Amino acid sequence: MSRIGKSPITVPSGVEVTIADQHVVVKGPRGSLDLDVVDDITVRQEGDLLHVERPDDERRNRAMHGLTRSLVNNMVVGVSEGFKKELQIIGVGYRALAKGDSALELQLGYSHSINVKAPDGITFDVPEPTHIIVSGADKQAVGQMAAEIRSLRKPEPYKGKGVRYVGEHVARKAGKAAK
């Protein structure tokens, strides 16, 4: 049996879970998320625990069992605590400027500034000009938005300039050898 799929999900206080057929809706203080569960997988609620179950040990059902449990758990964690990704900008003249909670203006060494607008449910925080925090309730949307910002100027291997995740290691290359 799936080690991930068989562990129950604890629903914290303040989070409401509604299960109708194959549709799971999770509401909490940070918003509401919903998921359509694959046909063979069932989600049932027992008090403040959620159980994800599969009918048999077919290969597809085993794969979907753990995946569905992880997706539902991420929804519960997202609406109660939220997710965040932190990015740092390295380079002379590279900086970020917040335009409200849902927009950024980035100077990344190009001749023009780049404006980034956040989708619904995602917020940006810029505590300092070289530090961006992307946060929201949906783990996938937060990760996707952070990846899109990073892709605007990926860290280059010679000087390390660009946008990177906090704690990301960039392999550095040696420059030209002097004669």
TrEMBL record:
One BP annotation, GO: cytoplasmic translation
The protein, known as: Large ribosomal subunit protein uL6 alpha-beta domain-containing protein
Domain named Large ribosomal subunit protein uL6 alpha-beta: residues: 11-82, 90-165
Keyword rRNA-binding recorded: yes
Keywords linked to the UniProt accession: Ribonucleoprotein, Ribosomal protein, RNA-binding, rRNA-binding
GO MF terms held by the record: rRNA binding; structural constituent of ribosome
NCBIfam families: L6_bact (TIGR03654)
Family per similarity comment: Belongs to the universal ribosomal protein uL6 family.
GO cellular component: cytosolic large ribosomal subunit
Short name of one Pfam family: Ribosomal_L6
Keyword field contains Ribonucleoprotein: yes
